[in-house]
Amino acid sequence: MLFEYEAIDNGGNKKNGNIEALNENVAITSLQRRGLIIVSIQDKKKKAGLSMEITMFQRVTTKEVVILSRQIATLFEAQVSALRIFRLLGAEAENPAVQRVMTEISDDLQAGSTISDAMAKHDKVFSPFYVNMIRSGEESGKLEFIFLNLADYLDRTYEVSSKARGALIYPAFVIFVFISVMVLMLTLVIPKLATIILEAGQEVPLYTKIVIAISDFLVNYGFLVLAGVIIFAFMSYRYGQTSEGEYALGEIKLKIPFVGNLYDKLYLSRIADNLSTMLESGVPMVRAIELTGTVVGNRVYEEILKETAEDVKTGSAISAAFQKHEQVPGIIVQMIKVGEESGELGKILKTMSNFYRREFNNAVDTLIDLIEPAMIVLLGLGVGSLLASVLMPIYTISGSF
Hints:
CATH class of the largest domain: Mainly Alpha
Radius of gyration: 30 Å
CATH architecture of the largest domain: Up-down Bundle
Strand content: 5-15%
């Protein structure tokens, strides 16, 4: 069994570590023979199981990774050892998930692992992009610079992603409310009004007949419609998990009117930002392109970057490789070509990243300004048309008496 212990030696210094023993008593005896005073000792498997139960519904957010990166960079600049840094951050973290990750990384460092290898074990917290950036920093001896770069990069990514989600939440909410109101009216309100209209025995307009027919269908077969929607959503989700489905979904995102243009700017900004950050941190070109493909967030652009990496491996210039794909705008191709010729590709890509990030922010602001009144008008027209289709015949009936 493996036990984790905290103890104090003869000099009053704290000692932390692991010891292999048959049981807890044997472990305590072994430590005491070394002249250590036991402060605490615990079965590591039980501790890991308890930690897993506590953190099962908790996760490390992007914001927390940004803060951690800045703290690590600051502590490296202060000449604090890597092991001490992760011990401190684990002890000070409020989120149990962060505590667990930092503690496990520090344990791996104590066992002789590198920071990048220790972080690679936590792929849900640190992406392949993040890990490779750290590996580059270890090789170049500029870890504090890399951590600061990562914090800045994650800040930009978090800001852009948050704005994208915010732009889509409002219209999604309005559409959900619109559909809910229409369904409630067709299943609860319209049937009662339809009874009055039909019992009057007068001629019913065509549009009123259509509304009453839809209402009858939903009342009698609404559960089938609901079941069909659930099945379709489930099948779509399963299809979206396949390689073919991911690519199809990526294409659909880019072809949606207005929104597709928004996604284009988001992915182009992300590609330029990733590449510039990695190139300036010393990551090899081909590896930078491959890693960018894994974090871009769209299968279409991921395939483009894979093909680009293969072309660059065979000796092609990046600009020439990008030029083969219609999804990559000509301005990016020309700017990359200038960067290749001048040897300032990293700076050129950062400029393009800033440009597309501004374009994305402007597009989001414009879209929100247009969506809000459009959705309100659509909701008003839908409900108004529905009510008018049944109220007009009722007014006609009441006027005939």
